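Q: What would this chain look like folded?
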Amino acid sequence: MDKRPPALVSAARIRDGIEDGQVPRLRRRLQWVLFAISALGSTGYLAAITAGTLAAAEIAGGPAIGGVPTASLTLGTALAASVLSSFMLRAGRRPGIIIGLGIGFVGALVAVGAVLAGSIPLLLLGSALTGFANGASQLGRYVAADLATPERRASAVGIVVWGATAGAVIGPNLIGPGGIVADAIGVPTLSGAYVLTALFIGAALVVVVTLLRPEPYALADPSALAMRADGAKEPSAMRLLGRPAVLVALITLVAGQVVMVLIMTMTPIHLTDHGHGLTTVGFVLSAHMFGMFALSPLSGRLTDRFGSPTVIVGGLGLLGVAALMAAVAPPNGGFVLTLALFLLGYGWNLGFVAGSALLTHGLPLGERTRVQGIADGLIWTSAAVASVSSGIVVASISYTALGMMGIALLVGPLVLLLTSRPKLDLPSG
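A: My prediction, written as structure tokens:
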């Protein structure tokens, strides 16, 4: 009796019908389809983050709950990662991404209705559902890793993450055009941004339905297809998470996400509190987003060349330097904070690309999918907690304390990585 998950059994039948000569071309095409999904999905997601903060403040009559829709979006992403990964093992990568984007599209429409009705509960529901689109597009980097050979795996992850650069540039700027359209037809201004969010998520959904063919599991590299011929059951989630490579990847991914979100979330408020205008805030955040996404192909190449552990150490180091710079920057230090936020973004990117590649090491396809869902669920849950905690820390102590806390949070993961490195059983690079 075949003990593999149903999706892998179906994928094997599909693979039998594909000529070997077609496989490299199909893999390359799917990689760029995943890039497009990442670009479109991240654009809709970041537009929703920008609109949600403003919409909540407008509906509530003040900024007190402005960050709650973002937390709801992030928790929706975390839930999607777990649910969709389990679904993918039964139905396939393609159906899982379709379901995630479909729920996200509905969520964006619910958010439009929330703005029209002036309802905070409906806005939070719509935000959580919209997060499913981000969860689906984020899982695309793991799909790209499945398609690549081990020596090119991190580069494949980097290409897909690179697609989010479009979202970083376009997403927050959709507020203006969306508002103009909304004003022209006589509806609340911010509803227009959510309509555009729905359009971008819908476009990503169309791309998946029409172009993400055949099922990506069917084109997975042979290195990902190892299976237990003796019919043994796959290990439990706890046993999988206890493997050195998985544990190191998971902890460094979560730590990088927490430190990045802690500092990034409160930097705009810190700048405005010290007299900087919105132009400076926008420039600093643009530098941060550039660091987060634009150099992803370089991160992938560095990881393939020098190995995940080395690049993760570099990423953690950059995060530490960025946190220190943010902590000691003078009140008028717009340039210092700009450089700090760029380094914060690129340090996160190095760890995100290298950690995502490391997470797949030595695991057959079914186990990979399970671990990836758990990992992304933890990453995005921790991001939601960090975004809420950052405001509490700044209000209770200071922005400087936030930077020092970021440094402290990096020590444990760095020690774990350095002490576990001999056990990772990785190629030298």
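The radius of gyration is 21 Å.
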